[in-house]
Structure formats: structure tokens, C-alpha cells
Automatic annotation (TrEMBL):
Its EC number is 4.1.1.94. It comes from the Bacteria. One of its GO terms (biological process) is fatty acid beta-oxidation. Belongs to the enoyl-CoA hydratase/isomerase family. Its main location: cytoplasm. One of its GO terms (cellular component) is cytosol. CDD domains: crotonase-like. The lineage of its organism: Bacteria, Bacillati, Bacillota, Bacilli, Bacillales. This is Ethylmalonyl-CoA decarboxylase.
Length: 253
């Protein structure tokens, strides 16, 4: 069974849908491979104008890293996993076409980092958003804090990270992280309507603006900060606090 679907629509939008509703669309290594393939495709396909990332089902957009798979990783394995997804989110952040996270339900942990790498975040009303890493005894491990500090006012970003709470989409819109809250009766159609003015532009125009926007993130200094965050998370991964929090979550659910 496929872990993610890749669809092209007639407007030039590529839809990447994580298909693991039974794990609330958690990201495992197979999802990473599919995401890598999709980012490359959108970057190189002359017909592709935009990328939308979403999840299957009503409950979750993405619940972050697959704890059932990643809990067994030793220090070096965890570091490699975090760096591998970090590279992917860095290439998503700096992609030369506009990107959207269509948040169809809860976004937790790394799910928030995936969404933070996108240019726009549209959420179904009532979705819960949680940069909850602090409560798991870790920090954002895929570059999420670095991206948050780029995209939100400093105190707002720090507030979200330090609280590590589940926050309603409507509140995250007031904080500036969500760009549009949608009713969600037909979420994809509601998203398509928001994208219509963008996809009426040529690929060349969309690409030129996107390149202007992401140039600042291509410096060595930015990459250094992005991957230093990942190394700090890797150091916390093997802590007793993290192991206990993951065990508690997996046993409860
Ligand atoms: C690795 C990178 C790191 C980072 O950089 O941030 C991370 O991402 S750490 C992971 C952070 N995520 C979490 O802590 C898990 C968050 N999940 C939840 O809070 C909830 O599952 C939900 C997303 C709010 C959905 O709640 P609900 O609809 O009530 O579903 P359940 O909680 O009952 O879960 C159903 C089912 O799915 C399994 N599940 C959910 N999330 C994960 C996950 N991240 N990894 C693995 N499995 C996950 C859960 O265990 C249940 O399984 P079963 O009991 O077998 O049905």
C-alpha cells in the first residue's frame, strides 16, 4: 500500500497526500522518499506551478515523525534521520515554486515543521496545531524553530515553542502562522479557490517571485543555523525524558 499519493491537476498544481491515516499521517522513511521524489518533480517539471501538501482523513494533517519506527533509533541513527528530513524541509523551504500546507486536521511535532517549510498554511477550522516537542523532552528536530523565527515575529515564535501546547488553528491565524482558516466542507475545492489567482500566472512569473523570496535562505550562515538546530535535537533524542514521553504516548494511544 502506498504511503503517499502524488497527483497533478489541470491547473498545474501537484498534490502530495500522505496516506497513513491509521498513524495520523506520521512521517516514516517511506514518506520521506516520496516527498523527496515530489520536491524534485515540482522543481524540474515545467508544467508544475505549485505544490500542495496535505494528509488523508479528517483527523490529522501530519502527526510528525513516526514514533513507532523512530523510537528504536540509537543516537547516530536518530541524528541521520533528523538530518535526512532536515535536508528535505530545507529543499521544500527553498523550492522555486510556491507551496501550500493544506492542514486537514491536527498538525503535531514534525507535522508543524513540515507546514512551516511551506509558503502558505491553510487550515480546516478547529484543527489543533502543536509545536509540542518541548513536552516530549526534545526540540524541533527538522529545522522548524529556525523557520518559525524567519516567518513570525520573534516573541510570537518563541512563545509558541516554549509553551509547546496544542493551539487552535484560529489562534494560530491570529499569531500569523496560518494564512487562511477554511470551513472544510470541501477542503480541496476551498483550497483551489484560494490558489486560482496564483495559478493564473505563468510558471516563469511564479518561479521568479519564489526565487526572490528564498534567496536569503540560501546562505551558508542560514544553513548552518538550520542544521545546528537539528544537531541540538539529536543530542536530546536519547535522553530519559524523551524515551519516557514516547513510551507514554505509544502505550496510551
Ligand atoms: C521526529 C521529529 C520530531 C520533531 O522534529 O518534531 C517529531 O515529530 S516527534 C513526534 C511528535 N508527534 C507526537 O508526539 C504524536 C502526536 N500525535 C498526537 O498527538 C495524536 O495522535 C493526534 C495527531 C492529535 C491525533 O489524535 P487522535 O485522533 O486521538 O489519534 P490517536 O492519538 O489515538 O492515534 C491514532 C493512532 O495513530 C498513532 N500515532 C499518532 N501519531 C503518531 C506518531 N507521530 N507516530 C506513530 N504513531 C502515531 C497512535 O499511536 C494510534 O495508534 P494505535 O493505538 O495503534 O491505533
Amino acid at each position: 500500500m502506498t504511503v503517499a499519493n502524488i497527483e497533478h491537476d489541470r491547473d498545474g498544481v501537484v498534490w502530495f497526500t500522505i496516506c497513513r491515516p491509521e498513524k495520523r499521517n506520521a512521517i516514516n522513511f517511506e514518506v520521506m522518499d516520496k516527498l523527496k521524489e515530489t520536491i524534485k518533480l515540482v522543481e524540474n517539471d515545467r508544467q508544475a506551478k505549485m505544490l500542495v501538501i496535505t494528509g488523508t482523513g479528517e483527523e490529522a494533517f501530519c502527526s510528525g515523525g513516526d514514533l513507532s519506527q523512530f523510537q528504536h533509533l540509537q543516537a547516530e541513527g536518530a541524528k541521520q534521520m533528523l538530518k535526512r528530513m532536515g535536508e528535505l524541509l530545507y529543499s521544500l523551504l527553498t523550492l522555486s515554486k510556491p507551496t501550500v500546507a493544506l492542514i486537514n486536521g491536527a498538525a503535531m511535532g514534525g507535522g508543524c515543521e513540515l507546514a512551516s517549510a511551506c509558503d502558505f498554511r491553510y487550515a480546516k477550522s478547529g484543527s489543533k496545531i502543536g509545536f509540542i516537542q518541548g513536552k516530549l523532552g526534545i526540540t524541533t528536530g527538522w529545522g522548524g524553530a529556525t523557520m518559525l523565527f524567519e516567518k513570525l515575529p520573534y516573541a510570537q515564535a518563541l512563545n509558541i515553542l516554549l509553551r509547546a501546547e496544542r493551539i487552535q488553528a484560529e489562534t494560530m491565524q491570529a499569531y500569523g502562522w496560518i494564512d487562511a482558516v477554511l470551513p472544510g466542507n470541501d477542503l480541496r475545492e476551498e483550497c483551489r479557490q484560494l490558489l486560482a489567482p496564483y495559478v493564473s500566472q505563468s510558471v516563469a512569473v511564479l518561479r521568479a517571485y519564489k526565487l526572490a523570496a528564498v534567496e536569503k535562505w540560501k546562505s551558508d550562515e542560514f544553513r548552518m543555523r538550520f542544521f545546528a538546530e537539528i544537531s541540538r535535537c539529536a543530542e536530546l533524542w536519547g535522553s530519559e525524558e524523551h524515551a519516557k514521553a514516547v513510551q507514554a504516548f505509544l502505550q496510551k494511544s
